[in-house]
Amino acid sequence: MEKIIVQCQGKPYFQGLDDHISEETGGFVDGANLPLNSPARSSPHSQGSEVTERYSRKVFVGGLPPDIDEDEITTSFRRFGPLVVDWPHKAESKSYFPPKGYAFLLFQDEGSVQQLIEACITDEEKLYLCVSSPTIKDKPVQIRPWRLADADFVLDASMPLDPRKTVFVGGVPRPLKAVELAMIMDRLYGGVCYAGIDTDPELKYPKGAGRVAFANQQSYIAAISARFVQLQHGDIDKRVEVKPYVLDDQMCDECQGQRCGGKFAPFFCANVTCLQYYCEHCWATIHSRPGREYHKPLVKEGADRPRAVPFRWC
Ligand SMILES: [Zn+2]
Ligand SMILES: [Zn+2]
């Protein structure tokens, strides 16, 4: 695509783009009726595979005119297909305007996102579309779609993924891709074989957390011992939390289930002298030893988020 400097005012971009879009729309409608086993559906890399799902239906839009309201945002993007406009705490605030100048577009169909991207102009690898508010005409706003392929990255396919050498990374900035998370963690600790960005199951949009699997124990221990890492990449510079990735289907490493009726172990000790799963019985026994009484058990919390719980001695 031709590179265009973002400057919409006074230039007839929309005329040309509209023509382009109506052509694309026709193509898309035809493509959507393809049978499920057609080559266009099954091959994600083929040219013109608009029907292959490539993006989250949730799209970030930033730099909106300050006086644009929800209805005007909807109207600006309605030509790509049915959508709902959302922003953080929208329901509670009852505001008509996105308070921080950004919003999320939740499209009904993934094809709408592809059409929106095609209509955008590109500047320094960022996507822009011109939007008007009552007082500002044709302001370029940034469009940031999430590519589904950016949620996973395998750095070393020869290594098996060991959940016991996997860390949970909390507070991941949302534009961060799995490949970027993998590279940052590999630079800091080495031995990264996989990184994943956690996404919500419905819209497949990043939830702000990720996982990194290491190929060796030393790198894993180095990462969990750090507790926090500074994620630096491009515009991103954020301190994030690193914890062991806690599973809820592991047997107690001390008794292999013999002292707890064969149930999965509820606790994980992230102290480097332990790094084991324990049943309640074995936790109490092992952690009554001198020097271990201050270890804190981690449990798997609902959405893959380990948290420390106060342990009750009984
Ligand atoms: Zn046990
Ligand atoms: Zn311990």
Automatic annotation (TrEMBL):
Chief localization: cytoplasm
Keywords: Cytoplasm, Repeat, RNA-binding
Subcellular location: Cytoplasm
One GO cellular component, as annotated: neuron projection
Gene Ontology terms, MF aspect: mRNA 3'-UTR binding; mRNA regulatory element binding translation repressor activity; ribosome binding; translation factor activity, RNA binding
BP-aspect Gene Ontology terms: negative regulation of cytoplasmic translation; spermatogenesis
Bias (Polar residues): 35-50
Entry keyword Cytoplasm: yes
Positions of region (Disordered): 28-53
SUPFAM superfamilies: RNA-binding domain, RBD
Record's protein name: RRM domain-containing protein
Residue intervals of the RRM domain: 57-148, 165-243
Organism superkingdom: Eukaryota
